[in-house]
Amino acid sequence: MTGTFEAPTLDYAALSPLIALAVGLVAIVLTAVFRPLKRLAPGLAILSMAVAAGCLVWQFGTEADLVSGSLRIDGLSTTFSLLILIAGIVAVLYAAGDIAGRQVGRPDFLAMLLSSVFGMVMLTMANDLIIFFLALEFFSIPLYVLCATDLRRPGSLEAGLKYLIIGSLGSATLLFGMAMIYGGSGGEVGFQAIAEGLTKGGVISDSLVLFGIGMITVGLAFKVSIAPFHQWTPDVYQGAPTPVTAFMSGATKLAAFAVFARFFLVALAPETDQWDVILAVLATLSIAIGNLGALTQSSLKRMLGYSGVAQAGYMLAGIIVATADGVDALTFYLAAYLAMNLAAFGALIVHERMTGSDSIASLRGAGNSHRIVAWPMTIAMLGLAGLPPTAGFLGKVFLIEALADQNWVWLAIVIVIGTMLSLAYYLRVVAVMWTNDPAPQGEDGHIDGDLLVTGGTPPWKDLGLVVPIVIASVAVIFFGIFPDPLYDFASRAGDAILSLTG
Question: What pTM value is reported for the model?
């Protein structure tokens, strides 16, 4: 019997964000070939991401399966993708004066960054196991290279290699778990088809499925820095170029938690009673290990790395409750976390370009000498600590409310205790900046007399660097006082999950 191949119907409007990013990626690669066009690469990267963001706004309200159901555009994918694109645009601006971009060749650096953004946006749309894995690798592999782009620093090369080895282990574990789920669900790859397959023939109790859930959990835990699978995080955060760290700290969590929510709350919905306890234990470990690890750090980048481990534990609460309200709270908190991290790392970039140091001690007296460093860093630290009137405070309140509504009171208490513990290291940074005299200054008038970027525009006068820092800082405060616009935006993600699960 001869079969006939039918090509899937393509909805080019719904696919337009991915198309815009792909066209931009090709254009940037071509600028590397035609050297006179190299200067256009940063503008092309920003333009392609801005166009993709416009396409996402155009598709707000659209809910449709794409390419034979392997991709899906809905409120979850549009909200998370927009936040990822914001992180990507800011990363381009932060990297404009960075030595890593100059060493590797700016078009090459930007092409890898845009490739990672493309993979992340695709991952938010992933609706089957194949796209899930391909998109995860599409964004991970360029990040391995980006972490190693500061070629003159052994720490950068070490960060790239360590991230590659640990990331590959996480990917292999994830793929092994996918194979188990594929077999246990009766040979299904689509998320909704997997959920249907798990409910047939008593397969729910099958050890094959439970083993697969465990492996997928471990694989995703590697990607979002959930303890005890976080070992790479502080080393990579410290060794990677700071603009890359700023990007990956927020965008990686956005992409991974998007597919975390879609896969666990849709494909594994019949198994909720099996995996929610596992995630709750991981969340508790992550909160404890992340906060305790951050207490002893002298490097701000390493401290923020351990902070990210604890924050991932808080974010897991939005998945554990397995409700639309939980996804809304998760999305709100991720948006706030992105703003707080962009403010903190942006301020750190300015500081590093003046001093060459990322140590907490080197921030001494910044409140008196360099307000462009001190104010955004203070706002970011207060937000990450969960203090009012910041969006970080409301984000934790929403997560705790979602937990309490679903009788996860003990985990809500863990979050409160973790937040109290985190005050010790977040407020230490604030105290160093505002309660000490400025650090010794050299003849050039800069802290330690060691200005990394000599000539050109001083970092505190670089509008491409300062404007995103100010906007991110203002957003942390604004959405802490007026949360409704951001919560309405975040609720699109929860509505998308609700429409799939009924």
Answer: 0.93
